[in-house]
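Hi V.,

Quick status before I head out on leave. The structure for the redesign project is tokenized and pasted below; the design run finished overnight.
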């Protein structure tokens, strides 16, 4: 059979198109002459043979002839007696002849460059205007092929998105599901849009600005490490409570008489409980009643909580009668 192209590409005879592409990509990058300047002659021979093997096995017609008649069949050698001739030929004759392409043409077609090396694969053409793979370009392909590179590939900038959360979410913790769409590359470097569901675990006590990072969930690009996808917790305003660090602050409106004589506060917590807080002190405009352990969970130890701070908005009467004024004066002058 001559050269065993399957062995050259290190694949099974049942290898599919994707297997052939993967094998060619890896071996072509390994044995490209520009990558082997100290062993160029051997590299050129291997590179040519690898390219020829891929050219044959990736073409259904060439592969069918090769599988039946071997390398000789591709070169229009007479088929074995009684074989019925080559596919598509007349009796005993051949209508197919293998015209091998150059290794550089196959490489350029595969990796998307029309003439990646200018005049020839060994450097610039006679005018000096040819293009030669620079190290940083070549290294990006080596990295994509699974080989190491002296210069690490560049990583794309992170993508940041706000993640709105209610105060109840941050108090109790919650699991959020986020659907994203992103481009991934197939074995031929073609982008395909895929959808993914990301699970975000919001822990009790997390604060505004907390970041949740999903590494390399950005779009895939050749030679570039995908972006990290970063969600940043944003706290929605609450109708009743304000957050101050690990404390919760609530303001209740009370009449002046209760500020002076005593008040009982009823507070519905973020987890739905109702707590009763008696206030026996005289309540001044700057007074705060502190209920320990009824604030936000502390992220490092969610079993502990900050404090609930109750502030008061004292409602003063808009006017007083003469008798009321006299009574207040007598009350305070006797104290």
């Amino acid at each position: 059979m001559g050269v065993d192209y399957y062995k050259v590409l290190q694949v099974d005879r049942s290898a599919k198109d994707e297997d052939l592409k993967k094998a060619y990509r890896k071996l072509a990058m390994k044995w490209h002459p520009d990558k082997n300047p100290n062993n160029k002659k051997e590299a050129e021979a291997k590179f040519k043979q690898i390219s020829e093997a891929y050219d044959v096995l990736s073409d259904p017609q060439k592969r069918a002839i090769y599988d039946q008649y071997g390398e000789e069949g591709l070169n229009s050698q007479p088929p074995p007696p009684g074989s019925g001739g080559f596919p598509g030929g007349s009796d005993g004759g051949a209508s197919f002849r293998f015209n091998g392409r150059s290794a550089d043409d196959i490489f350029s077609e595969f990796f998307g460059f029309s003439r990646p090396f200018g005049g020839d694969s060994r450097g610039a053409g006679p005018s000096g205007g040819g293009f030669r793979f620079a190290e940083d370009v070549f290294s990006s392909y080596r990295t994509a092929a699974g080989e190491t590179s002296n210069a690490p590939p560049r990583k794309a900038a992170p993508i940041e998105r706000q993640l709105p959360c209610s105060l109840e979410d941050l108090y109790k913790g919650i699991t959020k599901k986020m659907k994203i769409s992103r481009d991934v590359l197939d074995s031929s470097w073609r982008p395909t849009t895929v959808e993914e569901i990301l699970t975000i675990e919001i822990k009790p006590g997390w604060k505004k600005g907390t970041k949740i990072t999903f590494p390399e969930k950005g779009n895939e690009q050749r030679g570039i490490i995908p972006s990290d996808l970063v969600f940043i917790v944003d706290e929605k305003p609450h109708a009743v409570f304000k957050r101050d660090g690990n404390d919760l602050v609530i303001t209740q409106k009370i009449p002046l008489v209760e500020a002076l004589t005593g008040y009982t506060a009823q507070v519905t917590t973020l987890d739905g409980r109702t707590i009763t807080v008696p206030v026996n002190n005289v309540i001044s405009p700057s007074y705060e009643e502190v209920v320990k352990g009824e604030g936000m969970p502390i992220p490092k130890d969610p079993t502990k909580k900050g404090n609930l701070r109750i502030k008061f908005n004292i409602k003063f009467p808009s006017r007083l009668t003469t008798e009321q004024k006299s009574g207040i004066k007598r009350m305070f002058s006797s104290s």
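Above is the designed sequence. Residues 55 and 106 are 7 Å apart (CA to CA).

G. will cover questions while I'm gone.

Best,
W.
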